[in-house]
Amino acid sequence: MRNLNQDTITQAVIARFAGTPDARLKELMTSLVQHLHAFAREVKLTEAEWLAGIQFLTATGQKCDDKRQEFILLSDTLGLSMLTVAMNNDKPAGCTEATVFGPFHVEGAPHYEHGADVANGAVGEACMVRGRVLGPKGEPVPGAVIEVWQADAEGKYDVQREGLDHAQARGVLTAGAGGEYHFRSILAEAYPIPDDGPVGDMLRATRRHPWRPAHLHFMITAPGYESLITHVFRDKDTYLDSDAVFGVRQSLIADWVRQPDGSYLVEYDFVLAPAK
């Protein structure tokens, strides 16, 4: 087709995808084109603005490496990550809600016995974490694999520490016969997401803050149950109602209780949904 104009180009582009053999890919590409073109028309996008957008996305990709995923940060701060999580993790009543994965999970974290110190030298006040992994009827889930990771008191994950040659505040445990787990770590503290890249530029330009409320990350897997990716948030945190990545759910908030020896204790039971 020749002599396309702003009124006819959208359908012409969509027609080019007519022969796509994968039906789902065809649906995704067709809808993407429709919404992109509709966005450009709605805001009367200028060529200079689109070039700036391309430069922003290019810089976002250039900021990514094996320890930093700027596109995940972008998705998180635009609420797209949490929207996708919400749409794809509709849990039965009583099951623990899912939330964003985040960009700092690492494969191959060390395994620990119950009661071990997963902080492994990370900076922060001492904290005990304990609870159970259960099924929807209250049945224990023995052998559930529990991955946990968190930032230290300075707001850094171990992978953000230059020269650190071992995991800190990160580990894997296996639930006991009654579904129980317990480990020592450090007090969860609020921290800003990395804002020295394009995502930080976007937050500053729109007068948004980069802070996340204090939390622990968990990923729990067990045969016969859906995998769970979630956080446990610290109650009374300043940023619970303005999380930079929109990940807070009321059901995921717990109290970190100060103990007589000055350490902290947080208790949380996870309820897994049956596998579909």
Produce a short descriptive summary:
The protein is an alpha/beta fold. The protein has 6 helices and 12 strands. It has 2 domains: 37 residues; 201 residues, Aromatic compound dioxygenase (Protocatechuate 3,4-Dioxygenase, subunit A).
**Rg (CA only):** 22 Å
What is the CATH topology descriptor of the largest domain? Protocatechuate 3,4-Dioxygenase, subunit A
Structural class: alpha/beta
| Total of domains | 2
Based on DSSP secondary structure assignment, what is the total number of beta strands? 12
Q: Looking at this structure, what is the CATH superfamily of the largest domain? A: Aromatic compound dioxygenase
Number of helices: 6
Determine and state the CATH class of the largest domain.
Mainly Beta
Content of β-strand = 15-25%
Q: What is the CATH architecture annotation of the largest domain?
A: Sandwich
* Most strands sheet: 5 strands, mixed
